[in-house]
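Appendix B. Chain record.
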Amino acid sequence: MIQTDNNFIKTDPKKLNKNIFSMMDDDWMLITAGNKESFNTMTASWGTVGILWNKPVAICFIRPQRHTFSFMEKSDFYTLCFFTEKERHILEYCGNLSGRDTDKIRDTGLIPIFTENGAIYYEQARLVLECRKLYSARLEEDNFIVKKIISANYPKKDFHKFYIGEIINCFKHRA
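Structure tokens predicted for this chain:
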């Protein structure tokens, strides 16, 4: 089911009064990339927001083996969607199963909404950051100053690629 008329209001990301540390680390988020014909979403708890190049930006991290990785590589836009605790089961499902093997949208009941740019977010989200990719790069082993980070987080040396996106739209659910 695709919904185009929705219950979101556009807001300035600088006016958000949420604790972004708690939102990413404790609440988690869905990273979604692709287009109307084909997209994937994944749960994440690593990321950041801030100001870079005089723009509000969101940075997310994706390992190369994740199904969402190929969608992110091909997309100019992506979204970060935040939910209430009531939807924790959706985040757990999307974090434990791959879109290669299952239809996460069907199985969770997520209702996709498409922005004017073709980015995908969900009716159930409480907050959405729509981002236009500006820059991406892979984390490299030689660039780690604190080497313990590698053994603690990358035993397989499957370093994340990070994506810096300008936050071009911020949507808050009206409810």
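Further analysis of this model is presented in Appendix C.
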